[in-house]
Amino acid sequence: xxxxxxxxxxxxxxxxxxxxxxxxxxxxxxxxxxxxxxxxxxxxxxxxxxxxxxxxxxxxxxxxxxxxxxxxxxxxxxxxxxxxxxxxxxxxxxxxxxxxxxxxxxxxxxxxxxxxxxxxxxxxxxxxxxxxxxxxxxxxxxxxxxxxxxxxxxxxxxxxxxxxxxxxxxxxxxxxxxxxxxxxxxxxxxxxxxxxxxxxxxxxxxxxxxxxxxxxxxxxxxxxxxxxxxxxxxxxxxxxxxxxxxxxxxxxxxxxxxxxxxxxxxxxxxxxxxxxxxxx
Length: 280
Hints:
Elements: H1 7-73, H2 78-107, H3 110-143, H4 146-237, H5 254-274
Helix pairs in contact: 1-2, 1-4, 2-3, 3-4, 4-5
């Protein structure tokens, strides 16, 4: 079937195929770059930011716990008490703000949205308990009498500490979820890049095969038949040549048509030669 195509098609078809291969390679490269950029953006703006917010919120909670413990240790120092109260309020607010920011990021990240929602709900429940216990602790310490301080120490090392640990456990779980999400995103990016790399390698191999096929087959399909025709015509033009020789008409392209025309010319010349019409 390929032999019957015109020379124009035979010459253009390999070029079109090679162009398609090149476009496929370019598209694969652009896809890999785009995927890498998307994953990098997700890792930076979502996963890494999420982990950073959780670590900073955890640090803020520790600052609150440290201030409460210090207040329990120095309840009679008004100057220190003012510092402790300020640190508790500021770090509480900072931790709440950071957890809220993390919650928004998690909700916009499908890979961790569902799992983090339940953990965040438990975290907020423990936080309400912790803040309520912390408020009672502050009121007891503000009373200034020994009985209230005893109650405050029991509360601080009891309910306040227990709810604090419960909150931190939820933060640790959230951190693990974000880390797993980041690992999954990295694995997905690696798989995509690997797949695109394989496509690129296969496309390059196909391009090489097409180029070799063109280099090896095109001379046989075009150049050799034309060379045979040229040799026969030169022999006839020189006054010699075998008038019984025929060129193979094994295709319907322009080369095959020229071979047919030449063979008809040979037949005509042979008949004229036999009739004695051709000049010596």
